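Researcher: We're reviewing a set of sequences before deciding which ones to prioritize for further study. For each one, I'd like a predicted 3D structure that I can look through quickly. This is 3-dehydroquinate dehydratase. If possible, include the structure in token form so it fits the rest of the review sheet.
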Amino acid sequence: MKLIIINGPNLNLLGKREPEIYGSQTFDQYFRELQLRFKNVELAYYQSNIEGELIDKLHEVGFDFDGIILNAAAYTHTSVGIGDAIKGIETPVVEVHISNVHAREDFRHKSYISPNAKGVIFGFGLKGYDLAIQSFL
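Model: Here's the predicted structure for 3-dehydroquinate dehydratase, in token form for your review sheet.
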């Protein structure tokens, strides 16, 4: 099985940014743990702070991978383009958020990703990525 985790803006700051919300572990550290935990899964990882690059990556992998785990971060709530990209590809997408977006600001309650996603996982910290991988197995 071939899965890719795609992270959006500011997630490159995990471990430094608002540790009370996002924890103190970097995503690179966590990704290595996932690779060890899921040895039978070919896991890839991509992160960008740029909306167009995220759309390009979705187009690139959206016909060849078995699954996409997407944390579009703030673009979840603003990007019709990312929502349309997911609608246009064949690979199923699971939307993941580290925090409970419904316990935060009102603008975070709207997702342009969810209507086109296989499922949504939020509020379980980094463990949400683990749960998303398990959803594909």
